[in-house]
């Protein structure tokens, strides 16, 4: 992604500690003094790996368009099991709100975003924010108010754990093993974790406008992203989706959107710009 980061000057606030051992990085256009619409991005890594630095070039690309962008860390498995990450991300959102002025954050224009496992977490944090029954089920008081959440961006995520049983090959083995580590049980699909991580079961019409995408060569697209997009649309949620036919060439892999040497990844980037301009524009 780095060659595609524009020369736009940015101000960076790296490694802000929101709780001991957990940090986030902040990017804004240089000279920013006013609050800006803010994209909070949760990185992927199958719940067991990854770091916010992995997506920093992408966040710099978005920040150059006039946004504050925040890439956060969260505790990963197996050292921290579910739902520790959910609680920590909620604490990070509370910190962001409390320090909005110094972080250049417009708390009325927050976008939750993520890729892969981070997309699952972003969908979960969104559900926690807009669905009181779900928040009660999780036993978590959401840091965000529904009115503060402008939109959600989801790439290559997992939204229905039951459907993961139909995934095959090395990707299936990797995700199933990761879920064992993340939930602390091999029987994750039949537990509280499996039920509450399956955000497809908790969609309501209060869900914010959503951008959702996945590559045609990624099995998760057909088992997860397309069904979740359809569930959102059935509920009346404004959805911007970007998918390709199964026969599309080149075959677009998991996390294709970060491969900006692909025309399709640049299309996803540009559609993200348009989506943010429509749903999280600066006032």
Verbal overview:
By secondary structure, the chain is α/β, with parallel strands linked by helices. The protein is 36% helix and 20% strand. The protein has nine helices and eight strands. The protein has helices spanning 56-63, 84-98, 100-103, 117-130, 132-138, 169-183, 192-197, 219-234, 263-279; strands spanning 10-19, 22-29, 36-42, 68-72, 105-115, 149-155, 210-213, 239-242. The chain has an eight-stranded mixed β-sheet, with helices on both faces. Helix 8 links the parallel strand 7 and strand 8 (239-242). It is globular and about 50 Å long. It starts with 9 loop residues before the first strand and ends with a helix.
Instruction: Give a count of the beta strands, DSSP E runs of length 2 or more.
Output: 8
Order of helices and strands: EEEHEHHEHHEHHEHEH
- The pLDDT mean sits at 94
The separation of the N and C termini measures 29 Å
Q: What fraction of the residues are assigned to beta strands by DSSP?
A: 15-25%
Shape: globular
Strand order of the largest sheet: 1-2-4-3-5-6-7-8
Low-pLDDT ranges: none
Helix content: 25-40%
Helix and strand content put the structural class at: alpha/beta
The number of helical runs is 9
Q: Please compute the radius of gyration using only Cα atoms.
A: 17 Å
Biggest β-sheet description: 8 strands, mixed
């Amino acid at each position: 992604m780095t060659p595609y980061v524009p020369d736009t000057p940015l101000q960076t606030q790296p490694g802000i500690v929101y709780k001991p051992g957990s940090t986030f990085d902040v990017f804004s256009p240089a000279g920013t003094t006013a609050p800006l619409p803010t994209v909070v991005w949760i990185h992927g890594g199958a719940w067991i790996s990854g770091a916010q630095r992995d997506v920093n070039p992408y966040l710099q690309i978005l920040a150059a368009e006039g946004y504050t962008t925040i890439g956060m860390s969260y505790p990963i498995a197996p050292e921290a099991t579910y739902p520790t990450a959910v609680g920590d991300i909620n604490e990070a959102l509370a910190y962001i709100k409390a320090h909005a002025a110094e972080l250049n954050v417009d708390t009325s224009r927050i976008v939750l975003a993520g890729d892969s496992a981070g997309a699952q977490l972003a969908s979960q944090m969104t559900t926690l924010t807009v669905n009181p029954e779900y928040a009660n089920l999780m036993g978590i008081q959401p840091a965000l108010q529904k009115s503060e959440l402008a939109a959600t961006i989801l790439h290559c995520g997992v939204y229905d754990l039951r459907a993961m049983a139909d995934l095959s090959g090395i990707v299936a083995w990797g995700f199933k093993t990761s879920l064992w580590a993340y939930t602390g049980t091999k029987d994750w699909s039949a537990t509280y974790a499996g039920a509450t991580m399956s955000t497809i079961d908790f969609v309501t019409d209060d869900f914010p406008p959503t951008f959702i995408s996945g590559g045609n060569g990624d099995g998760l697209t057909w088992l997860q992203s397309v069904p979740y997009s359809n569930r959102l649309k059935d509920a009346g949620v404004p959805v911007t989706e970007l998918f390709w036919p199964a026969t599309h060439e080149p075959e677009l892999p998991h996390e294709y959107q970060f491969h900006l040497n692909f025309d399709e990844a640049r299309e996803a980037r540009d559609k993200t710009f348009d989506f943010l301009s429509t749903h999280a524009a600066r006032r």
